[in-house]
Predict the structure.
Amino acid sequence: MVKKNEETETENIDQDEENDETDINDSNDDDDFESITREEDEQITAPYVEMNRKKKKALLEFRCRVEDAILGNYLLGKPNQFLSRTEIMRQKEILREITLWDVPLLPSKGHEGTDIVLLRFLRVKDFKVNEAFQMLRRTLRWRKEYKADEILDEKLGPDVEKVMCLDSRDREGRPLCYSVYGAFRDREVYKRAFGSEENGGEFLRWRIQCLEKGIKKLEFKNGGVDSIVQISDFKNSPGPVMKELRSVSKKAMILIQDNYPELIHKIIVINAPLWYYAVHMLRSRFLTQKTKSKFVFARAPKVTKTLLKFVAAESLPVQYGGLKRESDQDFSPLDKASERKINGNSTAYIEFPVSEAGLTMVWDLSVVGWDVTYKEEFIPDDEGSYKILLKNQKRMGENVRNSFYIREPGKILITIDNGTFKKKRVLYRSKAKPTIPMYIFFKNQ
């Protein structure tokens, strides 16, 4: 009981301190603040030049609040009054070096990422300085209690790695974080992940760990990539019975909303069953309007079309209609894909010309929406040579990866017949690779 009273008194002291800070800052007249503005105006970096005066003033005030809180040793709360002077000085020195996502928070250090980080808190709080300041303090306290800065070094369960991973980037360079809930159809995996409250807490830590890994790939600088795209796939998920997962997901969403402002650019939910939408509506009551606006939904027929708005074909995994394959020995994300549209009830031809022999032509191809007939053939330049049929499919239903060794100049001709009334998009790329025929290779052994 005594401990509880002491905690209550501490909270009251902190609240009184926050109120005192607000009164002190609010008591400054406009003339005093204008002088601060003139002195620090040159420190505001290029992306913020076009901010209106009110927002720019809020950023400058926020910088001053953070600077004072760090130098005054109260950013994380009122220091323990029973500490020795030596210990207090040591804590002050430690606080001067405090960082958030590897970005120094002390504005006078002049780091270009400081304003970018502070602006995240301001924007999420509509440029209300006091609210943004309190949110920053809560975030730093939570990170200290949750040991978020140490979470990257933790070894968590192997099963959760089947559910979530970082893979490639979107069209703007943002890291892509995939959550594939179909893995939980395996009851043993689900039980190991959520069989107890302790396991559920571990899964939550792993979720935060994955987010922290994504943050490591960001650049908090002018023009840098500073947010992540989350893709949640519910295909073959076990259904509404996974109440433990729903509970942990809700906790994770609230933690991210409260402690990672504007670090999630979009949350793209694909292959979601009907029950998910009902759950999402209930969960939305706990989310801010800014968080709600980040959600994008795509049912099964629209998954590829939706993802391609955010992710280039060469960076989108094949299971989602893209061209990216694991451990690909033939292509990399640097091998850009071309695109062609096919009108309804029409035929399109794609050619890969080869001007010399001794090469292997490799090609990738995907059709958004499928439902087309497909044919591949090699046509030599020499009219006296024979055409070679490589593939003939009456109905194309998956991505195509094929190759052919070229013995004479000619071309690979791909014929795609769209017998539907809907327009189709074809994504493709090719590469010619020098090749030594096997009979020559063995002859030289």
